[in-house]
Each structure stands twice: as C-alpha cells, then as structure tokens.
Amino acid sequence: MADSLYIVEDDEIYAQFLKANFKNEYEVHTFITAEECLEAIEGVTPNVMVLDYNLPGMSGIELYDKLKPLYTKAKFIMLSSIDDGAQVLEFIKKGVNDYVVKDDNVIASLQSVIKGEDKFSLS
C-alpha cells in the first residue's frame, strides 16, 4: 500500500491542487478543518501530515500539538501563506521541524521536505 499523505487545508481549491500533485505517489486524504481530520484519523497511521497553519477553529499548530504525541513516526509539515520569522520561531518552540511557504514553488518544496532533501527545512 502507498504511503498516506494527510492534508489539512481550509481552501478547498488549494487542497485539491495539492492532492492532484501528490495522488500518483501517495494515498492522499484532504480535510477542510482540524476537527474533521481528528475525526477521520482515529485508527489510522498517516506517514505524512501537511497542516495549514491558519485554519478556522483549531489552528494547524494546535492540531499538531494534539497529533504529534500520537503519531511519533509521522512527518509533520506546517504550511503557511505568510513567511514570518516570529511564526517560524513559534513552530520551532513547539517542535515543528519542517515548514513550507505557500508560494509558486510549494509542490517542489513539499516534495523535497517529504523526501528529506530540503536543506532549508527547520530540522
């Protein structure tokens, strides 16, 4: 079975864009809210989780705080449209090692981080 990739992204069009780019390599699951993801993830062990930082309701970092202790082997990647040093510092303090900015290179950046090739991740 293919590795599973869970994407939590509140912009449905952007979520489908990400899914379309990874569906040939991964079993991709998309969720619009953190709460939706929490309901669906019970009993499943995802390989990679891409979490949008700015979600309605529970934020991506709050979702990370809930999931990281349960899925210690999963790779977590925080996704944000804002390239903010203070925000990145918050991620580091929380233990997030990988961060990708939503820009024109988002697919290549995500692929590099997932494969552990990105020298600019926080790890």
Unreliable stretches: 119-123
Treating each run of at least 4 consecutive H or I residues as one helix, how many helices? 5
CATH topology: Rossmann fold
Annotation, overall tally of beta strands:
5
Mean pLDDT: 88
Q: Characterize the overall form.
A: globular
Q: If you compute it from the alpha carbons, what radius of gyration comes out, rounded to the nearest whole angstrom?
A: 13 Å
CATH class descriptor = Alpha Beta
Order of helices and strands: EHEHEHEHEH
Overall tally of domains: 1
Helix proportion of residues, in percent?
A: 25-40%
Name given to the CATH homologous superfamily: Response regulator
End-to-end CA span: 28 Å
- Strand order, main sheet: write it out: 2-1-3-4-5
Category from helices, strands and their pairing: alpha/beta
* Overall CATH architecture: 3-Layer(aba) Sandwich
Please describe the biggest sheet, giving its number of strands, its sense, and whether it closes into a barrel. 5 strands, parallel
Sheet-strand content, in percent, reads 15-25%
Please summarize what this structure is.
The protein is an alpha/beta fold and 123 residues long. It is built from 5 helices and 5 strands, in the order βαβαβαβαβα.
Question: How would the blueprint of this fold be written?
Answer:
Blueprint lengths: L3 E5 L3 H11 L4 E5 L2 H8 L6 E5 L7 H8 L7 E6 L4 H10 L3 E4 L4 H9 L9
Parallel strand pairs: 1-2, 1-3, 3-4, 4-5
